[in-house]
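Thread amino acids onto this structure.
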């Protein structure tokens, strides 16, 4: 059996570093003595100010000539994203205004292709199809630093009930254009250098928006003097997507799509509720806490603190039950008690008096937890904490779980396993059945903090029993497969696939509040073909793997489930328990969005052992699956994959993951894992006329052709291979046939 091995986190996100991250300086032809100049980008600062739907963007970039002689005149080039509408353009080198020109995508294509062909460097091919801004820059003396300032405005597109802003920042080791002449008489050659980026977005009318969110980065939203300020945590790496949900409706709906070929597209749907006390659903909260002997000492003290926090989140409309269990089960009061200040004071005194001793009667505790019924207009919740395996009463986890499911009714169950001596099958089952979750607090972690975060998150329910009631296209493989409840102050993010794009219509979400059904609708467009928002497939795949892993843990591994895990992990370059990953550099556990590392990804040839249900390995596996299911951004996926990789050994070999595809190095060619022997292979010569024609017709090839020198990319009925021995030209009819075969299954 293969052993899972470490995976560089660059593989996790596989975000190709981008030369178009910002602008660069392209030197004009120069005399031989000037070839020893070397202009390096030092850093970039991006400031965005949003007024109405207009983004006013200022990009400042610092360049330094590290060569021995002055650089002659050059061109500053800045790519313009194809979907953006630009205006009010201005450009400065220091305090001197430069004369610049903007070109549409068709005019710019020739410039990009000429640079790629001349440099024999494919780092720019992603830009084919983008517009271009170009301006002449003044000579830069040896050792001199110059600042270039670019200002422009663009109209932000709507994404349902939100405005959508994108910025291409490239990887941490961004492939910014640094042109070094090298030896006297040599042609300039591209080099790579780190160029840190700072980013700040300010929406002037902050009250118009809910807090911003990003599916690519962890961002912070602050409100200062009526403005909404958005910044990524740490420096900016990788392409940034920011959504600004519009305030006003009780629930805002945001939609983004990605569909580069004829295979089913991907969508991301986000529900953003208002933080309004008036829309909350009253709760019936049952807290069940283990006070067996193993909970004595620090565990019990942390648990008391956690319960005090939870009690502090109850409002006057809520009701409460408290249950403690060891050998037997004890209750604070037999029925629901209103969460009045007086009652909460009594409950805190009961919590303070808890003492740890005896065994673990989980079955009896769960039976008592589900005994009291709730009215339809109220939301029943059970918070269940234990640190041990059942040792009193019924001890078979499967029978305990079955009895709990039969008695659970409408209750949402949020289970916490403390330490490693817990049964993950039982706790995962409780969380899965009740639109809740199971979370594990490992040794050294704080129970109080974990429970406190949950208590704050579930304080204000807005809608329950959510469903996607209406979409203009057929959707499938939606994750989470059973939508959880919607709480104020937290976006609910849903990922899925869709058929037959090119359709505009309405997306409607239904939910229950105070005993009645409510509907929320927004206009939405499911694209027929778009390469934008390519972060969506990886997040969808993470959710899918998390769901599949939990299903296997709860129901057992069937050949069909195992194969689905394997194929999904291989297709999207994610760690799983049924694939092996071997990395070139054993210590290359790098930060999110850095350049991809070389790894081999292959299916295991022997079945893995049966999954353990308790112990450190079981807890780690279950917790990783939960975080994968709940991933909301590429940063979340990176954290899950990095931790998984850090647990495993690193070995060397050659595979690479880029933009949602895995490639294995075979006989000098990077081969797409999706390629099968029955597909025709068409060879195309690198940097030839055919090469650029295909890039124009199939822009989804750009990330792979840019990063890999000899590469085979699989389409629906044909695979395209870039090689020095490929075709230089293809006539129009051949191109039409090739594009159709690459994109469509028919």
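Threaded sequence (746 positions):
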């Amino acid at each position: 059996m293969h052993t899972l091995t470490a995976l560089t986190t660059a593989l996790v996100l596989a975000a190709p570093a981008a030369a178009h991250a910002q602008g660069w300086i392209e030197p004009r032809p120069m005399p031989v003595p000037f070839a020893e100049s070397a202009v390096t980008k030092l850093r970039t600062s991006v400031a965005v100010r949003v007024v109405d739907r207009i983004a006013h963007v200022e990009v400042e970039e610092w360049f330094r000539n590290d060569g021995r002689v002055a650089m002659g005149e050059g061109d500053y080039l800045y790519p313009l994203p194809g979907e953006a509408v630009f205006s009010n353009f201005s450009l400065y080198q220091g305090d001197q205004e430069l004369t610049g020109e903007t070109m549409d995508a068709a005019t710019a294509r020739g410039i990009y292709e000429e640079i790629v062909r001349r440099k024999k460097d494919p780092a720019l091919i992603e830009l084919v199809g983008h517009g271009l801004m170009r301006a002449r820059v003044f000579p830069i003396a040896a050792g001199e630093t110059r600042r270039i300032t670019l200002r422009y405005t663009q109209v932000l597109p709507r994404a349902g009930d939100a405005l959508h802003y994108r910025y291409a920042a490239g990887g941490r080791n961004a492939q910014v254009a640094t042109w070094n002449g090298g030896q006297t008489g040599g042609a300039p050659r591209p080099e790579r250098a780190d160029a840190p980026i700072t980013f700040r977005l300010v929406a002037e009318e902050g009250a118009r928006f809910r807090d911003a969110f990003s599916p690519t980065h962890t961002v912070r939203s602050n409100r200062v003097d009526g403005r909404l300020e958005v910044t990524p945590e740490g420096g900016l790496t990788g392409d940034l997507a920011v959504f600004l949900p519009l305030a006003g409706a009780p629930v805002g709906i945001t939609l983004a799509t990605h569909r580069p070929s004829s295979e089913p597209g991907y969508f991301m749907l986000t529900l953003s509720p208002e933080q309004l006390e008036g829309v909350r659903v009253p709760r019936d909260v049952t807290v069940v806490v283990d006070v067996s002997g193993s909970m004595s000492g620090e565990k019990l003290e942390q648990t008391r603190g956690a319960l005090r926090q939870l009690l502090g989140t109850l409002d006057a409309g809520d009701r409460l039950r408290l249950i403690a269990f060891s050998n037997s089960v004890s209750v604070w009061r037999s029925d629901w008690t209103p969460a009045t200040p007086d009652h909460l004071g009594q409950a805190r005194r009961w919590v303070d008096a808890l003492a740890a001793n005896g065994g673990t009667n989980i079955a009896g505790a769960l039976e008592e937890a589900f005994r009291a019924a709730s009215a339809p207009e109220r939301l029943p919740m059970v918070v269940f904490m234990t640190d041990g395996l059942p040792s009193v009463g019924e001890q078979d986890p499967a029978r305990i779980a079955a009895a709990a499911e039969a008695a659970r009714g409408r209750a949402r169950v949020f289970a916490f396993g403390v330490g490693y001596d817990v049964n993950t099958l039982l706790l995962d089952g409780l969380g899965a059945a009740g639109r809740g979750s199971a979370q594990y607090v490992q040794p050294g972690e704080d129970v109080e903090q974990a429970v406190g975060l949950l208590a704050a998150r579930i304080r204000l329910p807005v809608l329950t029993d959510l469903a996607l009631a209406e979409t203009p296209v057929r959707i499938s493989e939606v994750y989470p497969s059973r939508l959880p409840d919607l709480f104020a102050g937290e976006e609910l993010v849903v990922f899925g696939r869709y058929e037959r794009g090119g359709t505009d219509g309405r997306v409607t979400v239904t939910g229950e509040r105070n005993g009645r059904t409510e509907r929320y609708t927004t206009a939405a467009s499911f694209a027929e073909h778009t390469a934008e928002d390519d972060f969506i497939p990886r997040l969808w795949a993470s959710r899918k793997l998390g769901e599949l892993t939990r299903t296997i843990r709860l129901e057992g591994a069937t050949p069909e489930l195992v194969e689905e895990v394997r194929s999904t992990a291989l297709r999207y370059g994610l760690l799983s328990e049924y694939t092996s990953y071997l990395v070139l550099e054993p210590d290359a556990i790098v930060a999110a969005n850095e350049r991809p590392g070389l790894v081999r990804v292959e299916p295991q040839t022997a079945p893995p052992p049966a999954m353990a249900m308790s112990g450190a390995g079981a807890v780690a596996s279950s917790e990783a699956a939960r975080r994968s299911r709940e991933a909301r951004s590429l940063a979340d996926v990176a954290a899950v994959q990095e931790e998984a990789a850090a647990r495993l050994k690193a070995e060397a070999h050659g595979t690479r993951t880029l933009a949602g595809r895995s490639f294995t190095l075979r006989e000098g060619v990077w081969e797409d894992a999706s390629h099968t022997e029955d597909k025709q292979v068409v060879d195309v010569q690198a940097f030839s006329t055919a090469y650029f024609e295909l890039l124009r017709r199939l822009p989804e090839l750009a990330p792979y052709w840019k990063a890999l020198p000899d590469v085979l990319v699989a389409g629906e009925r044909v695979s395209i291979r870039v090689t020095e021995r490929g075709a230089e030209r293809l006539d129009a009819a051949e191109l039409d046939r090739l594009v159709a075969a690459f994109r469509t299954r028919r």
